[in-house]
Amino acid sequence: MRKRIFCLAIVALLMLGLTSQGFCMANRPPASKKSTSKQVEPIQKISGKVSGYSWTNSTITITTVSGTSITVEIDKVTKISKSGKWIKMADIKTGDAVNADYETKGGKRVARTIVVQEKVSPKVTIPEKKKR
Asked: Which residues contact residue 80 at a Cβ distance below 8 angstroms, ignoring those fewer than 6 apart?
């Protein structure tokens, strides 16, 4: 009698296990085209001058030489450097020349790296006095 109850319990568990997976999969919504064909957006590069920023939205606007303006977001992962040292977003000023790498996520451009170029000051030479 014990063997029969044990065998019936095993058979019931097997049947439950075999049918429950099919039942769960049958109620699952079909995969959408977006989830099956994820395309990785390539990293874009931009060079230009900072023409504006918003500290509240954590964005900067970069204007290229051709006049195109692109606004990029700065998040926790964005690396910002100047002269080989890490700096904060607040250290970026309007008019700074920058190179930025960004990717598009959810319709937004998110900066990965921003390199602020050092301002090159022109050398001022003082003419020497002529000796008489």
From this structure: 74, 86, 87, 88, 89, 91, 92, 113, 114, 115, 116
